[in-house]
Write a structure and sequence with these properties.
The complex is a heterodimer of chains A (300) and B (150). Chain A is α/β, with parallel strands linked by helices and 300 residues long. Chain A contains nine helices and nine strands. Chain A has two domains: 98 residues, Aspartate/ornithine carbamoyltransferase (Rossmann fold), CATH 3.40.50.1370; 154 residues, Aspartate/ornithine carbamoyltransferase (Rossmann fold), CATH 3.40.50.1370. In chain A, helix 8 links the parallel strand 8 and strand 9. In chain A, helix 1 packs across helix 5, helix 1 packs across helix 9 and helix 5 packs across helix 9. The longest helix of chain B is centred in the middle third of the chain and has 10 residues. Classes of the chains: A alpha/beta (300), B alpha+beta (150). The structure holds zinc ion (ZN).
């Protein structure tokens, strides 16, 4: 996998994914390992995403690599009309790997085709965000002790959330049973459900968290946004069904953990934060170890 | 016998037969035949044993390149391509969609990089019967009803 770009989670096989997760465990035990002290990592954020950028930069710094880059397109040459290709070819002269986030779907794939150095996609519009998927899988494995045959619930906006689509497809390789909790307007797209069926796996659909909470090992929360509804009254009617409260965790399994890609707005009430099930801040922390593992794999 | 006569009516050129009903004008358009100076015959709503109704186009002194044939297949997958040289049928084949389509079709996704920068489009054909093209870049599908050529 040395020198191999990561654009879509589908670019990596099941065994390659497991290899990254295993390596990440080592970085969790010992995060400071200056094994990339002769390397330069570029972070090109054509749209701002402070959380993702800092996670990559922390990962690179802890491996001893130097980090260069920009964090919003306003300060970059893209603003002056330079093509993405030219920006990538130029930055590739200064660095050993390029981490990029860009508002247009497909930008990272294009960059990987023109770039002489590997590209890591940190989000390309509504398309892919593969390191989020890796850190979600790492968090699931860590909290459950395994990835195979789990009951995984997804809550909220299952229609537009790319994070959800990638994770469902990735978890199909580990024989998960899916519990899909969403308003009718925001159901999982049919191509993702078809993928579950093609793998001979089960999914169940629900309209509220209560119906599924006692069956699941992982509760993956996402935000239901008002803008996604054609009718604002419909949003008002359903919004509370997708907010997780402390009370709802009364009937859950002992091993249940709550995940969320963050940032959270109000979909997990703050009284859940102190519960043993809350795992979303550790999940973000795991992102650093997974990104360390990825950088080490690509650059070593 | 009658069919043979129709086909043989040009000395050199190409006959595109069994064009999907209603697509004759679109085929003329995508092949840029509106400016063509030599003879063109075309017919629509003709009876076809196989398809009920069909269209046909005959173009004198013109042979199509593989990417033009790919375009025909995208708007009329049932079409047959017949090449005639000196009144003889030298090639007769069903048009075929290749496994990949490069630089021919626009991506339907307005937020796709191919619609913003000078990136040649590139699709994998995921369903040849229904005509579903998956963009290599944004990973969205472009279908039969929204195919637009570059
Ligand atoms: Zn596209």
């Amino acid at each position: 996998m040395k020198g191999k770009s990561l654009i879509s989670i589908n670019d990596y096989s099941k065994s390659e994914i497991l290899q990254i997760l295993d390596l990440a465990e080592g970085f969790e035990k010992q995060p400071r390992q200056p094994i990339l002290s002769d390397k330069v990592v570029s972070t090109l954020f054509f749209e701002p995403s402070t959380r993702t950028r800092l996670s990559f930069e922390s990962a690179a710094n802890q491996l001893g690599a130097r980090v260069i880059g920009f964090s919003d397109a306003g300060t970059s040459s893209a603003k002056k009309g330079e093509s993405l290709k030219d920006t990538i070819l130029t930055v590739a002269c200064y660095s050993d790997v390029i981490v990029m986030r860009h508002p247009l779907a497909g930008s990272a794939r294009w960059a990987s085709e023109v770039s002489p150095v590997p590209i890591i996609n940190a989000g390309d519009g509504a398309n892919q965000h593969p390191t989020q998927c890796l850190l979600d899988m790492y968090s699931i494995r860590k909290t459950q002790g395994k990835l195979d045959k789990l009951n995984v619930a997804f809550v909220g906006d299952l229609k537009y959330g790319r994070t959800v689509h990638s994770l469902v497809i990735a978890m199909c390789d580990f024989d998960a049973t899916f519990h899909l909790i969403s308003p009718a307007e925001l159901k999982l797209p049919s191509y993702v459900k078809q993928h579950i069926k093609d793998k001979n796996l089960e999914y169940h659909q629900y309209l509220s968290i209560e119906e599924a909470i006692n069956k699941v090992d992982i509760l993956y929360m996402t935000r239901v946004q008002r803008e996604r509804f054609a009718d604002p009254i419909e949003y008002e009617n359903v919004k509370n069904a997708y907010i997780l409260t402390k009370d709802q965790l009364k009937n859950c399994k002992d091993n249940l953990k709550v995940l969320h890609p963050l940032p959270r707005v109000n979909e997990i009430s703050e009284d859940v934060d102190d519960m043993p099930q809350a795992y979303y801040f550790q999940q973000a922390q795991n992102g650093v170890y997974v990104r360390q593992a990825l950088l080490a794999t690509i650059l070593q | 016998m009658k069919k043979e006569l129709q086909v043989s009516a040009i000395k050199n050129g190409t006959v595109i037969d069994h064009i999907t009903q209603g697509q004759v004008e679109r085929v003329l358009y995508i092949l840029n035949l509106s400016d063509y100076k030599d003879q063109i015959y075309f017919g629509a709503n003709l009876d076809s044993k196989k398809y009920g109704k069909k269209g046909i186009i005959k173009v004198s002194n013109k042979f199509f390149a593989p990417e033009e044939i790919s375009k025909i297949a995208l708007v009329s997958p049932t079409a047959t391509l017949i090449e005639i040289r000196d009144y003889e049928v030298t090639v007769k084949k069903q048009v075929e969609i290749s496994d990949e389509i490069r630089g021919l079709v626009k991506c339907v996704n307005p937020n796709c990089i191919t619609n913003h920068e000078a990136v040649p489009t590139h699709f994998e054909v995921v369903n040849k019967d229904e005509i579903v093209l998956r963009c290599r870049y944004c990973e969205k599908n472009t279908g039969k009803t929204n195919i637009e050529f570059v």
